[in-house]
Amino acid sequence: MRRYVSGLLLAVDIGLLLLFAAAYAARYVHPKHGWWLQVLAVGLPVLSMFVVVASAVVLAFRRHPALLLAHLLAVVLVVVRFFPTERLLRSSAGDRPVLRVLTNNVKLREGRRGEASLLKAFQEAHPDIIGLQETYTGYSADPPIMIMSPQARLVAEAGWEPARWMSDPTEDGTRLPVFSKLDWVEPGLRSWSIDSSGERRQVLTRAVLRWEGQAVAIYNVHLRSFNPDGHSNALTGEIGRLSTLFANMLSYGKDFLIRADEASQIREILSQEELPYIICGDFNSTPHQWVYWHLRRGHQDVFEVAGSGWGGTYHSVVPLVRIDHMLVSPHWRILDARILRSTASDHRPLVAKISLP
Hints:
The structure is a single chain. The chain is an alpha+beta fold and about 350 residues long. The chain folds into 2 domains: about 1-85, no CATH class; about 90-355, Deoxyribonuclease I, Chain A (4-Layer Sandwich), CATH 3.60.10.10. Helix content is about 35%, strand content about 25%. The chain has helices at about 1-25, 35-40, 45-60, 65-80, 110-125, 150-155, 240-270, 290-295, 300-305; strands spanning about 100-105, 130-135, 135-140, 145-150, 160, 180, 185, 190-195, 200-210, 215-220, 275-280, 300, 325-330, 335-340, 350-355. Strands 7, 8, 9, 10, 11, 12 and 13 form a 7-stranded mixed β-sheet that branches. It has a 6-stranded mixed β-sheet with strand order 5-6-2-1-15-14. Strand 3 (about 135-140) and strand 4 form a beta hairpin. The longest helix is centred in the last third of the chain and has 29 residues, at about 240-270.
């Protein structure tokens, strides 16, 4: 019996190490080579905690040298991933001016009360620039006036000016508006709609403003989410029917692939930028998934450098994962980053303080 239990525990431990390795590798493996790795990556923080505990047990007994070596390697990988060297890049502004930038997916949960709560959170953060997702700004051709969703109008009426639409006023507008209390350099907001798997949707906007005599570009992003067409949730839908569950899981795989294609095209757009720039928004990707890492390479993550705590942004009531991010070009110094404790939307806002040398 004892031998059976020992063998079972060994099998569980090896299985844990294999799951950890697969989740850890997801950041470096394109979803087309195994989108299911991206699902495992969501659970990497939990798997890492189990691995650390299991490593302490294996170290205490020291019965399997090869297993002990595997656990030591796993612990090193945990330290590298969750205690990044980027923290060493954090600096103080000194006498330099500070730019405050906020990003939030503002899909409100509480109606009017949510609007008031959201505005209070924004005003307390004092951002110079605000990038919003899932809220509308556009034009009416006759009469020629700007049309805004309630969330966007709330921000505009509080003193943040929206970047004007640079295309023909008959355009549909954008659900990725940018607001600022600074001066806009260019007359409007540029947008990119990306074709992927036969679908076309707006995923990126860009505006340029002047801060302390320097032109600065701000990119606002919203990558493909799950269930954009209302298909059943693969985890909470009709799980009693295997055919439905299988179809939903395949649709999730499609979502991963579309999001990866969007990230690749955005990466190409960013490679042509010559100004100091900021990329913020809802990536729908955790720091351990391929999409985030593909966009992250060559940039600084404000929360990785200067944030503290868990950093979860979704769901706002119980923020288990960080899928809302802010990346900046190497021009910037990152001074501070924090997640605001606002539950007005289903995403929590992220605000950062940055400066130019």
